[in-house]
């Protein structure tokens, strides 16, 4: 059994230290328009992060079992040597892009991911606002396992991807050098992703690399000041409501639906979808 260090767990002290330093930087100086921190919002983000650590331990059991079965069935094997690691990480980031995009356009997946977008602030603590549920995100990485990448390597690359994304949750960094902005995900690109304005919605899905968005037509540059949160904010700091409010809304819509086609639509179509009032089929 391959084992790799839990880079997220090892990084938690650094996360907390950097959050404190960023908070202090706001006390010393805040630019016009920056939303900064609030105690209640930060506490909610930390609670969601702590809860996700425990939830992940449960979700990883069936996912690891499914990956192990698929890995045992495929005849392919990718050997982890110095030159295959960058290729595997790029491949993982490619599938992360499609997973992330899918979590924005399929409502039952959005019910998981909406947690991360529920804050109306954008700072390093927002990076820790993670979901407690996992519906089908693991399916997006099945091609990697079938291609012969060991499941533990897939999981490790996913942790590296998540670790990279911590630092891009900030308003304290304006722009990186132009070459860096062209290739990598940055705070500027990710502010757009967390914004709720119409022109910014469902943009910049990349994890480490922004090139996927440029290739597949989902890139948007940061031009106007971002307004963070959801198109309809949930106005709560209760971790349970943050974690499950969209599942409750889906259940309500499914229960009220007039047909099985509409019920499927509430699960599988976009988060804003509603059936035509005149369509009772």
From TrEMBL:
UniProt keyword annotations, A-Z: Lipid metabolism, Membrane, Oxidoreductase, Transmembrane, Transmembrane helix
Protein topology in the membrane: Multi-pass membrane protein
A GO cellular component annotation in the UniProt record: membrane
GO biological process: lipid biosynthetic process; membrane lipid metabolic process
Coiled-coil stretches: none
A Pfam family matched in the record: FA_hydroxylase
Residues that span the membrane, as ranges: 7-28, 57-74, 81-99, 138-168
The organism's place on the tree of life at top rank: Bacteria
Main location: membrane
InterPro entries per record: Fatty_acid_hydroxylase, Sterol_desaturase/TMEM195
Cellular localisation: Endomembrane system
Residue ranges of domain Fatty acid hydroxylase in the record: 86-218
Single Gene Ontology MF annotation: glyceryl-ether monooxygenase activity
Protein name: Sterol desaturase/sphingolipid hydroxylase, fatty acid hydroxylase superfamily
Lineage, broadest ranks: Bacteria, Bacillati, Actinomycetota, Actinomycetes, Micromonosporales
């Amino acid at each position: 059994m391959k084992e790799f260090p839990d880079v997220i767990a090892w990084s938690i002290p650094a996360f907390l230290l950097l959050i404190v330093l960023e908070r202090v930087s706001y006390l010393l100086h805040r630019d016009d328009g920056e939303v900064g921190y609030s105690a209640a919002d930060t506490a909610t983000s930390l609670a969601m992060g702590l809860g996700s650590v425990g939830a992940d331990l449960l979700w990883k059991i069936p996912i690891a079992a499914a990956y192990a079965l698929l890995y045992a069935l495929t005849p392919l094997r990718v050997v982890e040597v110095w030159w295959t690691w960058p290729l595997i990480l790029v491949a993982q980031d490619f599938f992360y892009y499609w997973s992330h995009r899918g979590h924005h356009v399929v409502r039952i997946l959005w019910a998981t991911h909406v947690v991360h977008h529920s804050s109306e602030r954008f700072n390093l603590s927002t990076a820790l606002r993670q979901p407690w549920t996992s519906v089908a995100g693991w399916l997006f990485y099945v091609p990697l396992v079938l291609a012969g990448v060991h499941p533990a390597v897939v999981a490790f690359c996913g942790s590296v991807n998540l670790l990279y994304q911590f630092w891009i949750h900030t308003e304290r960094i304006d722009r990186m050098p132009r070459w860096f902005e062209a290739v990598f995900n940055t705070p500027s690109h990710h502010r757009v992703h967390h914004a709720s304005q119409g022109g910014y919605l469902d943009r910049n899905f990349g994890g480490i690399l922004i090139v996927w968005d440029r290739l597949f037509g989902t890139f948007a540059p940061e031009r106007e000041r971002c307004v963070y949160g959801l198109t309809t904010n949930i106005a709560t700091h209760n971790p349970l409501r943050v974690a499950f409010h969209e599942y409750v809304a889906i259940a309500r819509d499914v229960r009220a639906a007039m047909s099985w086609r509409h019920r499927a639509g509430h699960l599988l179509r976009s988060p804003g979808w509603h059936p035509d009032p005149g369509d009772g089929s």
